[in-house]
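Pasting two entries for a bug report.
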Amino acid sequence: WEILKTKFRKKADEKQQRVETPTSVKVRASVNFKDLNLTVDEDEEEEEEMQTVAPTNSLASSPKHPKAKKAMERMKLVIIMVGLPGRGKTFLCNKLKCYLNWLGHSTQHINVGSYRRLQKPVDEVQSADFFDKNNTHGMEARNRALDAALSDLDDYLASESGQVVIFDATNTTEERRQKLVSHFHGRYQYLFIESICNDPKVLEQNYRFKMMYSPDYKGVDMDKAISDFKERICKYEEVYEPISNRNVHYIKLIDMVTGRGYMDVNRISGYIPGKIVFFLMQVCKAGMAQARKIWLTRHGESEFNLHGLIGGDSNLAARGEEYARLLP
């Protein structure tokens, strides 16, 4: 009996210790809502001793309540473009920037090629040979442009307003992408968007459209510009490594503009990334390289127009219906 009594007493003591709560508890809660990270730090303070009630019936001071410190942070996101030249990356960047800003997420488009052109000496010609993997001078210049672009990216995301950066460059090698991951990891969220196109007809159309506006070929004959641009692409193809690592977050657009392609979505979750996937499906379905005419027109003559009335929603008059039939 003495042995059993000792065991029962020991179990009761252990249960009592588990029930007791510490006098000071620090709780940290974090809630993610859309693109917001809501953090609450709660410090529970020790209760003060209750004061004795005074003869004047004044209330005793109440114990202090926990103080909660609330912080709201917008998640920072970097969208890293991947793909050979002439695959519609910059087109997608401009579309995404407009869309995300319209949604209310402050977005900046950073094009590494622009930094390369700004750093280029006035008399230097950066032909296809400049992009050769064995061109030491070219590699150094391109790395300087990358570092300058990353510096501006950090400055923008460090600001209170900056939320999303679209990092526009070829980023065709695993080494280059790993360098970017090392720079962003633990600081920002990031995902890759790789644009792949193998349709010769679409590519030729892209090349000609690009040569019309590319600063690299300003004032150069169209045929000569396209020839040099194709040589540049060959230089990139020598080192090109498509994304194959399933551990990274990426969206692949493969021949989407032809209507026969598909989208590969890997490890994409969250509010803004989900919006991006939906938007890209619509943009690519419409066609990135197709020239389209958009007509904006008022209705033809209405019955109210015949009577000089403004407003309302009357039917079309005979001439209004004829006008509608003649629209292209």
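Entry 2 (this is the one that rendered wrong in the viewer):
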Amino acid sequence: MCTICLEFAFNDDKNREAFQFAKCGHVFHFDCVEKALKINNNCPNCREHIHAVDQAEIFIRKRLEYKHAFQEGIRKYRIGLVDIRVGTSKRKLMEEYDLVDEVYSALVECGILTVDDMQHVRATPAVVNRLKAEAVERDRYIKDISSKINRLTMDDIDSIRDKLKRYNALSWFCQQLVRRCTLTIDKIDIVRDDLNDEQLRELYRISLQHCGVTVDEIELVQNKLEEYDLMVNAYEELIVGQDITMDNIEVLRKGLETYDLMKVAYKESIIGGFVLTMDNIEQAREDLEKFNLMSEAYDMMIDMGYITMDNIEQARKDLETYNLMREVYKRMIFANKITKNNIDQVREDLEKYNLMSKVDLAIIPFFGRRV
């Protein structure tokens, strides 16, 4: 048990690691003993004076901890130039653990500290010159990669991965490939170990936005899309791309209903994509009636010429229900689908809807050519 905090757990996270004094052998949590030694340099249990080796190890471990924290903060753009000005709490920690130069270098590598910002650096001329050289080298490398981006593929990434990571530019590089659809949504996982969750989510989001997605791709990356809360985006892209058809809507039904997108899918993809015909409308009838889209569905089929002399009787009940019979015949007349050979088949309807005069005008020239 750690006699400072009176807890038994050790090594449950990096700040709860065990630390044993070399001289007396007593064990404490590392974070507990680090705080205790700021009060005095004696063992909290036996009051034995702490050996210099122990003090050095505590300093080194704490320095590594802060170094990692600073580097992570810089890579995630949570630490900038304003945080390391002389007098700030972070600057004091940097100075206490001799991390000033390393933090400056990390800022340069991440592109936060540029050549133009060197006047903000409080360091010796030698350090400033070194940082300038590092900043120039980074800018040159990023510009070189930018000029080649259209020719680079994921096959090239292994040769430049380490340097891109060093310059905190791997995420940027992958985003460029994603925007060009060179790095497809089903391949993003190959950089999983090199990027954090926030960066990976952004890659998936950009891929959906710029390249769209197919039903097969959604099945392949569904777990990732769910993890990053992007499934609704994926379904919306399917709808916008009109990739939802009568053949796959049942496969997608659960997801579409979960995100309240079934009506939008029918309206924008099934009807808007002109995939609804007299051959499959019965399959969709229940949904179309539920979402009050039957009239809109028939409007589309009329405009597309899907309702013909051969199937108008099949559609009659619905067309009469939605007062669309006259519109069907007007469309047929306009498209010259009513001729001398079939006019008797629909004469009663044409007279009912006062369309005989329009038919006569449409087919008389036809008769003239035939005579």
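Dev reply: Rendering is fixed now. As a check, the viewer should reflect this: The two ends are 110 Å apart (CA to CA).
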